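hiii, so i know i said id send this last week but things got crazy w the move. better late than never?? heres the sequnce for the chain we talked about at the cafe, plus the structure i predicted for it. fair warning i was half asleep when i ran it
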Amino acid sequence: MPPVTVRWSLVAVLLPTSKASTVVEEKVVGSDFHKERGFSAFEKGNYPKAVEHFLIASNDKDGKDPEVLFYIGLALAHQEEYTKAVDFLKRAEALKENDADIVSEIGNCLMKLEQYRDAIVYLKRAIELTPEISSHFYALGTACEKVGELEEAIQSYNRAIELEPRDPLYYHALGFAYESTDKHADAIACFKKAMELEKHHK
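okay and structure toks below
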């Protein structure tokens, strides 16, 4: 069923005040209805259905709801439609500047598209906005490593470890970066630490 949109002015003209409020309560489903259905589908992992509902909600708001645009982007990213995801995420960013979640997700999608230098720009912005998130530094390190900026990659991985010293993934990444720069003793130490942490996590 298409979304029902009832405007107060029209209701007020057609019905007494008491009945008008009842109609609004019962009939206005529009963007809020589809937004909630979108969230429900997203939480259940039904990303195509989430996109369907979020698109209806977005159209009803003339595409001006950054939260809806963000979740369309997320749902598309879950379906590995990264180019489309970036488009919606950038539209969300235009409406809500300096939102760390939006900025970091654009960076992550650009990583998937192997657009590493563009990803670096967004990941650095995400770090400026939320410098306490270790995964941002890990992603930045990965992007830097992909473009051959190994020293910056090492710095980023080390910062990720400072923020979250119990994640073996960060030590593995740092170890490989050290290995690429012929710092073999440092690389071995990182691999040993990663194995130690993995053993404790089992």
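btw DSSP finds twelve helices and no strands in the chain. thought thatd interest u
miss u guys!!
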